[in-house]
């Protein structure tokens, strides 16, 4: 057997198995929280917001949940085309075949170590494929904008909301 035939066959076999697992996984009832892919974002948030999230576990959880709510809200304000592209990306990241194509591994993101997530995102960030760099930038911008849209996170930026003096007209 030639090396090229073996590699092609191995890749095709892996893809077929992954696709089979992805297509025949049991259907799970989705709630409104699942629509916005909260679990996936809760895995990515600490990676993108490294150093910005509070260290105290209870405060960290509050900040993550507040940011997840802001992400859900932000998604509703995106143009329809961008919403659709984002949903396609998130669905790929939640399926084993999509993960295999996008990250080279079928291990769910939830089960990966932070270092593995960082490596995957850095690979996307510096990839020659526009699709991966666009995916990285889109996720990063959505997460960062949603986090810093919450006034309680402005302190990290040393930003203070401007106040305006109201002059009484006599």
Strand content: under 5%
Whole-angstrom Rg: 20 Å
Low-confidence stretches: 1-33
**Approximate shape:** globular
Structural class: mainly alpha
Counting DSSP E segments of at least 2 residues, the number of strands comes to: 0
Task: Give the number of domains.
Answer: 1
User: What value does the average pLDDT take?
Assistant: 78
Distance from first to last alpha carbon? 94 Å
Number of helices: 8
Helical coverage, percent range:
55-70%
Order of helices and strands: HHHHHHHH
- Largest β-sheet summary: none
Architecture blueprint of SSEs:
Elements lengths: L2 H21 L8 H4 L2 H11 L8 H21 L2 H15 L1 H8 L10 H12 L4 H19 L22
Protein name: TAT leader-containing periplasmic protein
Summarize the structure.
It comes from Shewanella frigidimarina (strain NCIMB 400). With 170 residues, this protein is mainly alpha-helical. The chain has helices spanning 3-23, 32-35, 38-48, 57-77, 80-94, 96-103, 114-125, 130-148.
How would you describe the overall organization of this protein?
It is a single chain. With 170 residues, this protein is mostly helical. It has one domain. 65% of the residues lie in helices and 0% in strands. It contains eight helices and no strands. It has helices at residues 3-23, 32-35, 38-48, 57-77, 80-94, 96-103, 114-125, 130-148. Helix 4 packs across helix 8 and helix 5 crosses helix 6 (96-103). The radius of gyration is 20 Å and the shape is globular. The protein starts with a helix and ends in a 22-residue tail after the last helix. Residues 1-33 have low confidence and may be disordered.
């Amino acid at each position: 057997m030639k090396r090229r035939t073996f590699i092609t066959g191995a890749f095709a076999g892996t893809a077929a198995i992954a696709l089979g697992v992805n297509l025949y996984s049991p259907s799970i009832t989705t709630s409104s929280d699942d629509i916005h892919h909260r679990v996936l974002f809760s895995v990515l948030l600490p990676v993108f917001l490294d150093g910005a999230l509070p260290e105290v576990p209870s405060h960290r959880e509050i900040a993550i949940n507040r940011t997840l709510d802001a992400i859900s809200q932000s998604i509703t304000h995106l143009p329809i085309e961008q919403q659709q592209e984002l949903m396609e990306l998130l669905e790929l990241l939640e399926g084993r075949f999509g993960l295999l194509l996008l990250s080279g591994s079928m291990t769910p993101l939830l089960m990966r170590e932070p270092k593995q997530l960082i490596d995957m995102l850095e690979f996307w960030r510096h990839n020659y494929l526009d699709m991966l760099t666009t995916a990285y930038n889109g996720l990063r911008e959505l997460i960062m904008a949603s986090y810093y849209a919450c006034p309680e996170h402005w302190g990290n930026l040393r930003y203070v909301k401007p106040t305006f003096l109201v002059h009484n007209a006599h």
